[in-house]
């Protein structure tokens, strides 16, 4: 268990870890218990969403790949069409939530302290601080980190992974856990391609395909309003799919990658 970086313990689940545990419990069994509790909580969160017909999307990427900038541009583009809400996750500061609120959209900031990912308990606490009535799409911006956010179910329906052109096109090969989890991959900051002579979007996509992930790949620049139409069309389509599932009493769980947890255990 990753005690040193605080990876598996967050302010949301700490109380569960320090409850008296059964005689004979080991670090591994306590960790398994925590992960099971996370999955149970995530299922409950999904019920909150499905009951209201909300589509919940988890945005993941390295720090600074443009998650908040993408949200700002998306919320502006959709403001007359859908009601959106945002949960922001960062180790410190309220900065990202303030950027979203400046767009006139409800945002709740989760400050994780030392934890390098969101978990289902943190998201549940946030949900109970929000008004979900009438919300069509809830975006959850995970902590900037290309490893462990892929391994914790939050109750979302879909994972969107961003890869910015400044990071190198080999990232899907180097961080397979994250890119296997993606239901869509967005290549962001394409306005910089002209000055970055070694990022090839086709190579980034081919590394994703090497992971046997058939997810759509979209290229866009939130800053310069390039390629946003395909992303917005994908969102509309996924919201319609969510509404169809809800009408049939069905739900969708994204491709959570438990091996990200193993990575942390092995390297701790
Ligand atoms: N050139 C360019 N810069 C961008 C684009 N999108 C974001 N940026 C810049 O990239 C930097 C980081 O953007 P953010 O949106 O804060 O990134 P983030 O992924 O939310 O960052 P964290 O929340 O810290 O992980 C900022 O300086 C943005 O202005 C883009 O499309 N083009
Ligand atoms: Zn960690
Ligand atoms: Zn951000
Ligand atoms: Zn609840």
UniProtKB/TrEMBL annotation:
This is Hydrogenase maturation factor HypB. It comes from Thiobacillus sedimenti. The keyword Metal-binding applies. Residues 57-214 form the CobW/HypB/UreG nucleotide-binding domain. Keywords: GTP-binding, Hydrolase, Metal-binding, Nickel, Nucleotide-binding, Zinc. Pfam families: cobW. Belongs to the SIMIBI class G3E GTPase family. HypB/HupM subfamily.
